[in-house]
Amino acid sequence: MTVPKPLDQPDALALDSIGLVADMANSVAAFDAARAGAEAVEIPWKPEAIRNVAICGMGGSAIAADLVAGAFRERLRVPVGVVRDYYLPGWISDDTLVIVSSYSGETEETLTACMQALERGSPSIGITSGGKLAGRYADEGIPIVPLPPGLQPRAAILRLLVPLVVMLDRMGVIASAGADLDESRDMVSESVATLGPDVPSEDNGAKTLAHSLLNTVPIIWGAEATSPVAQRWKCQINENAKAPAYWASLPELDHNEICGFEGMGEFGPMARLVMLRDPRHHRQVGRRFELTREIVEPAVGGVLEITADGNSPLARVVDLIMLGDYMSLYLGLLRGVDPGPVEAIGRLKSGLSATSNGQALGPA
Ligand code: PA5
Q: Percent of the chain scored above 70 by pLDDT?
């Protein structure tokens, strides 16, 4: 008789106190609501007045911007920069579209950057569930894509990502993203059907991957459109599985990180290299993955290669996001931790707000 694997047991999700795994089943509905919500927002700004775009955010609210900029990198008509800082760079001015993305609307770096954008007269759009950001933008008459409250920011990834695509399309920054969104929606639907908790481990790529990464330190590598996906996987392992993980990007890592594997020593057997590959990588990037693997493989406990599926880059990014999200949640459950709460982030934020005396919305 075969013994069911832990993730296939009836009580497998018992530790998941806020139902993050169960909520993944609502991903298609979340995708549709996000698209409709962003399409319904009235934008007073004229596309021809925009010379570049800055997307301000932190953590789960910022990675959506990197993912979109990565997926559409070859189709961006104007520069798009992601700002994860208090201060805005000097190039942001009154012809920069500033999209402020903060799930809670309370993140101090994002709020400070948003205040500077207002001072510079930048046309802005907010993506938020509320907080000070929603209040301030409502006062100023600035459009807001409203998000439903009560979610973990990282679990709202589709609700944050889809509006960015819609807004960049509507503002003429990327042309005709409709087909990309349609295919991505199908990808979400397929992922829910094939990776959800009811699909047994032997047929479930996310559960299999979680088992392979249990008791290891994952090092996630991506390139081009999969670079921000590598970062997302690392952050999801950190937050959902409460475990260390690291990420890097090719070709850059071939110019530095590759040397560090010589000194792996006792850490080597614990390290698992995960390569997130895209069938449309530049030919030389494909060669680099292979050659770099040959060089570093002896120094680590194992190497896993995962290739994104899908026609459009956005669909391939979404394919990997869904796999990484499920995998990290399952990894948390296998580790015996509750994937939901992120106590360390909460402690840090309360410590900061106690000392900032509510001044985070203003300049330094
Ligand atoms: O995953 C998280 O909870 C964090 O990374 C948050 O996204 C980050 O702290 C920023 O908060 P918010 O997304 O509410 O702006």
A: 96
